[in-house]
Specification:
Shape: globular
Number of strands: 0
Helix content: over 70%
Strand content: under 5%
Radius of gyration: 23 Å
Largest sheet: none
Structural class: mainly alpha
Number of helices: 7
Order of helices and strands: HHHHHHH
Distance between the termini: 56 Å
């Protein structure tokens, strides 16, 4: 009697179909694109003030020392945002931390765009730095978790986007200044774009 090969004593093994890892919230493409966009905006935002320092100093009648204090506040809040987001990610999850960080970044930029005094402008820069730190750490962690087999290249592409934003900002801002555009407009426009990214992050299931 012929043996079917699929009885209880069969040694044949069924190989499971390979699992294709997908990022939540509509597949890997959408979240990856948001990560790239976020890092472009973080790089762009980091070079906004340096690109517009002469106009900002004139408007607020600030010496170079005042701008130095501004950079210090922004850097300190960026570090605090980075450290705090690492803690909060474990407590609240990316679905909360990433959108909140993006909205904080947008709020800071928006406040800078309408700041009536130097103190308010510095506060805006600090809030923006806080949000930028949260976005950077959150997106770094997301890419590390999702791209298990290609982490190095994934992070390289992500940080390339930061460099592209930082490179584009002085070139674009310089052109706008030559056209006579007020220094406040780039802050307002960037804030609006970051709000849009934040809203898209809210809709993602991380």
């Amino acid at each position: 009697m012929a043996h079917s090969g699929y009885g209880p004593h069969s040694h044949h093994r069924v190989t499971p179909a390979p699992v294709v890892e997908r990022l939540p919230g509509g597949g890997s493409g959408g979240v990856t694109a948001l990560g790239y966009a976020s890092f472009i905006l973080v790089g762009w935002g980091a070079l906004l003030i340096p690109s517009l320092v002469p106009a900002i100093e004139r408007d607020f009648a600030q010496p170079d020392a005042g701008v130095g204090v501004l950079y210090l506040v922004s850097a300190l809040l960026f570090v605090i945002g980075s450290l705090a987001s690492g803690y909060l990610l474990g407590r609240l999850g990316r679905g909360v931390v990433l959108p909140v960080a993006a909205f904080a970044m947008a709020a800071g930029l928006g406040l800078e765009s309408v700041a009536p005094t130097w103190t308010v402008f510095v506060v805006g820069a600090g809030i923006g730095g806080l949000g930028s730190g949260g976005v950077e750490v959150g997106m770094n962690g997301l890419f590390l978790d999702r791209f298990h087999e290609d982490r190095g290249r994934a992070l390289s592409r992500l940080h390339l986007c930061f460099s592209l934003g930082a490179l584009a900002a002085p070139l674009a801002i310089g052109a706008l200044v030559e056209m006579g555009v007020t220094w406040r407009l780039p802050f307002a426009a960037t804030s609006a774009v970051v709000v849009a990214v934040g809203l898209l992050l809210v809709k993602r299931d991380f």
